Every structure is written in structure tokens, then in C-alpha cells.
Amino acid sequence: MDWSLYPISEYADWSDKWDQLNFKAGNSQLLSTQFIQPLIDNFAPEEAKLAICQDGSDIVCMSVISPEKSTGWSSFQPSQAPIGLWIQLPEISTASLINTLLPKLPGLKWVFSLTQQDPDLLSRSNDNHTLTSMDYIQTARLDTRGDFDEYFSQRSKNHRQNLRRQRNRLEREGITPRLETIQDASMVDECITDYGRLESSGWKQQLDTAIHQDNPQGAFYTSMLTSFMREGKATIYRYWYNDDLVAMDLAIHNDDTMVILKTTYDESIKTSSPGVLMHQEIFQSLFESKTISCVEFYGKLMDWHQKWTKDIRTMYHLTHYSWQANLAKKTLNITRPVRKLIRL
Fold it and tell me: With contact defined as beta carbons under 8 Å apart, do 139 and 297 qualify?
């Protein structure tokens, strides 16, 4: 196996090869060019590289990697990407791939971190003297096959009663909730503006992490969702109380799996939970449509996830330490895996 490194600006030249490999490696929409190219355009540093591993004429692994100060390199992963950008043939050893990549990397290469991997897409490697895995987060998914009423009857009694009380109260107050499903690419700009306005009314505005049309986050979601929606692979949900927008979801999907990328709601509403009511209607529509069989949340497991599903798995990091890093670990008595080595 032999690795080649290319400037990140050349990713588009290899995008077809990337998608072909992704199809063989699980066909995740989060690792498709439609998702990755906007990530690169809006967030990738100039030092990032496209790394390609070939076994003879066959491409067996591709990754977008970026340097980490004072430690080495890692799979490129801005916060908008739930999975580190690494795809490989499942029958190839991840440890072997990383071992052969390291000598090709420029600069400091004490540590190589393969971040936030889904065990359903990339099997978790066993620890050895150079490679260590570490739990990242628990995440949930929802199986939307079967009959919704039967599924809903299996949710907790408190959850079902709480939803019924909220809907009864809205009816008494003359409020009619309404779910709007948008799959028209020409409406993405409007929807991202709406999403940013709704998100900016809450705590994310105080942390300067809210989506806006004029920031990189807004540019990324606009470009990415437009691309997916033109192929019928994205859906934006808007939830209304009469004429007031109160909650939104941004989602992408392939033939049978939907990934909910972002959720926001009006945090000023205290007498009901518009996000929860919205998800009830979304999930019911997916059960009834018979087209989507799985909803992936990918974010950190939250209490509201567990009200809807018990299907939970653990995502993980892989960290490869060079012999110099291993020596430093022993010298400093570092006993647990870390993503960034202590500066010496």
C-alpha cells in the first residue's frame, strides 16, 4: 500500500473516486462529496491535505487530514461534521493504513488522531502498543419501520400523556400547530435565514455559534442542503403555531436513512415544547411514508432522544502514537488515551 498527499484544493478532482469508495464503505451521506465539498470550501485550513492510499491501481482509503499544533495530524473535522473524514475498504486493517500513512506526513507526526468514528461504518480496532481507541459519545437512532401507532404505544406513559396535554392546551389557547415539509431547492436560502433568526433568539447567539446567512456556517448549510435537495435527498421541516415559526429541523437522507443535522426551536415558549411536538409529527410521517427506515441523530445522546428510541451505540476516536510519543507517554506516566499530546 502506498499513500499520496495532495493539496486540499484538488479534492474536486478526486470527488468521483471518493464517492465510489464511500459507496463501498457504507455509503454514508455524511461522507459524500455533496457534504464534504462545502465543508472544505468553508472550513478547511490551507494546510489540510487529501490523503489517498492505493494498493496497486485500487484506491483502498481516502481521507481529508489537517495538522494539529505541537502533536501531529488528525482527520479533518469541523464541528459541522458528525464523522471524521476518513473512508476505507472494510476488509483493510485501519492500523496498517495509519502505520503506512505516518511516514508520508510532513512536519511533526508524533500523534495521528482518527476522530469521531461510527462503529457501524468503521469497525473499532483493537488496542496495541501504538494504537489506542477511546469512547467518544453515545448516539441514538430510530427505526421507523412498522406501524406508528403501535410504536407510539410503546413509548413511556408519561411521554405520551405529556404530548397529549401540550396539544390540548394549544387547542384551548386557539393555537393550531402545523408541520411544513420543504424539499424545494429554491427555498433553501429563505429557510436558512429563518433558521438563523430562530436560533439567534436563544443561547447560541450568546456564544456566537448561531447560523447566519453571512457567516461560514450559513454558507455551508445553504450550499450543502441546496446540493442535496436538487437530488431529492434533503428535507427542511418548519413547525408553526398559527403564523409563528417555532421550530425547525435540517435533514439529509439517502434511499432509506435520514440524518437530522440541526434542530432549533423558540426558547421563549415555556408552556409547550415545540421541538418535541414537531418531532412527533416528523416521525409519524416517516413511519407512514415507508421510504425512510432509519433516523440517525449522531449528536450526543440527549434525554429527548431516549424518549423516542433505545437504539444507542458508542462512537469512538482512534489515536496512533509514534515511538517518540509512546516514550513521552511512559516518561510522563500518561495512562489514558488523549487526542492531543501534552506539549513538551
Answer: yes
CB 5 within 8 A of CB 50: yes
> Residue 84's closest CA among 111, 115, 61?
115
Which residues lie below 8 Å from residue 14, measured CB to CB, with a gap of 6+? 6, 50, 52, 62
Residue 112: C-alpha distances to residues 55, 72, 220, 306 (Å): 21, 6, 27, 34
Q: Give the mean pLDDT of 28-45.
A: 97
pLDDT digits (tens, 9 = 90+) for 276-326: 999 999 999 999 999 999 999 999 999 999 999 999 999 999 999 875 555
Characterise 107 by phi-psi region: left (phi > 0), alpha (psi -120 to 50), beta (else).
Answer: left
Give the residues across from 317 on adjacent strands.
134
Domains and CATH numbers, the chain: 2-137+315-332 (3.40.630), 145-292 (3.40.630.30)
Alpha carbon distance 245, 191 (integer Å): 11
Q: pLDDT for 90-141, tens place per residue?
A: 999 999 999 999 999 998 888 999 999 999 999 998 888 889 999 999 999 9
Write the single-letter amino acid at 272: S
324: Cα separation from own chain's centroid: 33
Report the alpha-carbon distance of residue 334 to residue 344 in Å, rounded: 13
